Amino acid sequence: MSKKPTISDVAHEAGVSKGLVSFVVNGRPGVSAATRERVLAAAAELGWRPNPNARSLTTRSAYALGLVVLRDPEIIGSDPFFPAFISGVESVLSDRGRVMLLSVVPDEERELDTYRKLAAESRVDGVFVTDLRHRDPRIALLAELALPAVTLGHADVPSDFPVIDRDYGKGIAAVVSRLRELGHTRIAHVAGDERMLHGTHRRDQFTEAVRASGGTPIVVSGDFSPDSGAQATHALLGMAEKPTAIVFANDPMAMAGMAVAQELGLRLPDDLSITGMDGSEMSRYLFPPLATVGNDPAEWGRAAALSLLALIETGASDDVTLPDAEFIPRGSIAPPPQAAQPSSERPTAQPSSR
Amino acid sequence: MSKKPTISDVAHEAGVSKGLVSFVVNGRPGVSAATRERVLAAAAELGWRPNPNARSLTTRSAYALGLVVLRDPEIIGSDPFFPAFISGVESVLSDRGRVMLLSVVPDEERELDTYRKLAAESRVDGVFVTDLRHRDPRIALLAELALPAVTLGHADVPSDFPVIDRDYGKGIAAVVSRLRELGHTRIAHVAGDERMLHGTHRRDQFTEAVRASGGTPIVVSGDFSPDSGAQATHALLGMAEKPTAIVFANDPMAMAGMAVAQELGLRLPDDLSITGMDGSEMSRYLFPPLATVGNDPAEWGRAAALSLLALIETGASDDVTLPDAEFIPRGSIAPPPQAAQPSSERPTAQPSSR
DNA sequence: CCTCACGACTAAACCGGTACAGAAGCCGGA
DNA sequence: TCCGGCTTCTGTACCGGTTTAGTCGTGAGG
Q1: What is the CATH number of the domain that holds B313?
Q2: Are residues B220 and B209 part of one domain?
Q3: Within a domain: residue A79?
Q4: N or C, which end of chain B is more exposed by having fewer CB within 10 Å?
Q5: What DSSP string describes B318-339?
Q6: Do B161 and B177 belong together in one domain?
């Protein structure tokens, strides 16, 4: 292969100056149609693409977006959110001549340093802020760095960044409501990492829904990892007054919880109802199929990418509210076992066979 | 925030020329220790970091590595390999001043275009080639583009790229051997996507291991997705001569297979033994815990990153062979039903003899 | 004492684009 | 015919680094 062609090669080939070629590829006015064609033809023939590095130098734009993920390398594999989120982002970026830069960091210190580095080196034009934490230090840092950003969810600190969000509360309320309808009175929640906003939000939405229906919520903590889901389930099922239904804050914890219950000899869903959250692909292939609350990470990705691009290109971008999360009922929920209900409850017809 | 400092600012601050600052930050000889200190101090004080874009212009290096993933957006969430692989890559890159550029593409055409674009725009210094396919067109394309690369596994076409690989056959052989020991005679394999080399390799390694032990392999096809695992399991369990053990080509398919079996009323592992592959985090949290063959994607990532960096920096890099994949016995395997086992057997898996 | 090699440093060209001032060509109106 | 005023296009100065040729002392060798 010969050397990569440059804008000068194209200019020479088309018999015009560098500047004009630049005008053409950037769609600037003041170029005759005939010349435009000639330049475009020359560029196509030479297979020339403008070098973004050179371009960045004068335009002060990196033509790249960044995603920094703070996640324990050990458990990142069980998280179904990011790959799908990224593919959603990518579906928007691919047509826009921008690329995505990804960083996975193990601790908060390196996370912040990574943002500083991306900004100082002008590596990206903007970043996605996922997994918002309480009093998230990234908000202030990004503002200080003057790095455009969009946040997934509303931060609990002052932020001027556009927000992509989805009401998850209704979905959780629907879960609780359905469990109550089925006759459950002792409904537990295994919370996600409570340093993260969506960990506490989901917990609060759960407790609120249970209280609203006149029940008393039971909550144990987890951290979104399968391991924590298993431990929490052990704890719950070891209680004197076992819950008859467990609402997990994500699918991986629910999956691990299902396994623990089964290992203890419980039949699902007859002896215990279980639900997850996030609507992972795997959830429908479990036994019993895991009832969950949809989330569609790819949709988050698309919306976040569009919003961030708008912010970068126009300097402003509106908040986006995705459609409400929907409860996806599946076979992992059923009426509570009769024995567990000493007091008056509608005698629900229990399915005799499975 | 004030404007970002440039090399000229640092030079002025330290009272030297731009060129000297460049010498200092690149560790070139011919700079007195005193001056070096002064320059470094000025750089630190101003918080200056060399702009990689400007740098790229003359050094022809992008200071970035690329990963292009061809994956159906719908199922990428259930794939535990990439997030962990990426975190392995990142653990190497973070200290090296290079970043990682990620692209997720839905079809082969766009995949190849993405490589072309990355090369034409000098976005990356090299790429990781994962999920090798038969007669993979990327090998020739990358050679043509003169883009350095490392492949995960050996390509079946001539390739000059360094290879990162791990013997997976021994692990698979250990699985089969253990199942035979337990008394299984009808052992089936649910293959992964056979367009991918590791799909057919695993299948071949399975059939070979079964034949070597005097058995007759049963193979049905899948594509690594949970859905295909479920379908294949249905097909197998609908056969007149059902298999008593199923070896799945990855964990997600195995998980879906477990669910199908349980839904059909089979008790695991007593009625059916199941194994997965890739040693995903989730596998240990299932019921019964899924026996699998370890893989450690993060280790692939680290090795691939080191190899690719060496290739880029020195122009050559050796192949790397990772430690053999190891069978991880767990509760999902047991003797076949009604097995006339002359010797002592227990329903749970025993440590394999390796 | 002069020359020369060498270490430390500077100046300017260059990488591949963009931006902007201004030149050239063309047109219509006075 | 001359003069604006467009439109179209050129030339050149950047952007922030790297690289190379060359300058300037300084000390050793002849």
Answers
A1: 3.40.50.2300
A2: yes
A3: yes
A4: N
A5: --EEEPPP-EE--TT--PPTT-
A6: no
Which CA-bearing residue is nearest the C1' of D18? Answer: B58
What is the rounded average pLDDT of the residues B287-308? 96
Instruction: Give Cβ neighbours of residue A335 (< 8 Å, ≥ 6 apart).
Output: A182, A183, A184, A348, A350
Q: How would residue A339 be classed by pLDDT, with cut points 50, 70 and 90?
A: low
Mean pLDDT value across residues A22-37:
91
Contact status, residue B318 vs residue B165, Cβ threshold 8 Å: no
Same domain, B188 and B246: yes
How many helices (H) does chain B have, and how many strands (E)?
Answer: 12, 12
Cβ-defined contact of A49 to B121 (cutoff 8 Å): yes
* B44-87 tens-digit pLDDT: 999 999 999 999 999 999 999 999 999 877 777 778 889 899 99
- Ranking A77-91, A166-180, B141-155, B315-329 by mean pLDDT, the lowest is A77-91
CA atoms of A332 and B158, how far apart (whole Å): 51
CA A330 to each of CA A285, B52, B158: distance values in angstroms, whole numbers, following the listed order: 11, 51, 50
Query: What's the CA–C1' distance between A32 and C27, in Å?
Result: 16
For residue B72, the model assigns a pLDDT of 79
Rg of chain B over all Cα atoms, to the nearest angstrom: 26
pLDDT in tens, B193-251: 999 999 999 999 999 999 999 999 999 999 999 999 999 999 999 999 999 999 999 99
Both A285 and A180 in one domain: the answer is yes
A333 closest CA partner among A230, A281, A261: A261
Domain that holds residue A38: 7-50
Give DSSP secondary structure letters for B279-299: --GGGGGSSSPPBEE---HHH
CA distance A307 to A316: 9
End-to-end CA distance of chain B: 61
Asked if residue A106 has a cis previous peptide bond (ω within 30° of 0), the answer is: no
What the block records as the tokens of B111 is 């995949």
Residues around strand D, C-beta < 7 Å: A 15-20, 23, 29-32, 34-35, 54, 57-58; B 4, 6-8, 18-19, 21-23, 25-26, 48-51, 54-55, 57-59
CA Rg value for chain A: 26
- Tell me: do A242 and A125 sit in the same domain: no
Does residue B186 lie within any of the structural domains? yes
Q: Given a cut of 90, is residue A342 above it in pLDDT?
A: no
Distance from CA of B54 to the nearest CA of A (A): 6
Domain count, chain A: 3
Vertex B179, ends B173 and B183: CA angle to 5°?
140
SS3 assignment, position A50: coil
pLDDT tens for each residue of B107-136: 999 999 999 999 999 999 999 999 999 999
Q: Backbone phi, then psi, for A64, in 5-degree steps?
A: -150, 150
Q: Within this chain, do residues A142 and A181 fall inside the same structural domain, yes or no?
A: no
Contact B73 A105 (CB under 8 A): no
How many CB atoms neighbour CB B323 within 10 A? 10
Distance between the alpha carbon (CA) of B175 and the C1' atom of C1, Å: 89
Does residue A97 belong to any structural domain of this protein? yes
On whether residue A119 sits in a domain, the answer given is: yes
Tell me, yes or no, whether B79 and B122 share the same domain.
yes
| Distance of C1' in C10 from CA in B19, Å | 8
CATH number, domain containing residue A21: 1.10.260.40
- Considering only the beta carbons, identify the residue of A51, A71, A226 that sits closest to B122: A51
Strand partners, A68: A103
Q: Would you say residue A225 has pLDDT above 70? A: yes
CA distance to partner chain A, nearest, from residue B67 (Å):
10
Do B101 and B176 lie in a common domain?
no
Give the model's pLDDT for residue A72: 79
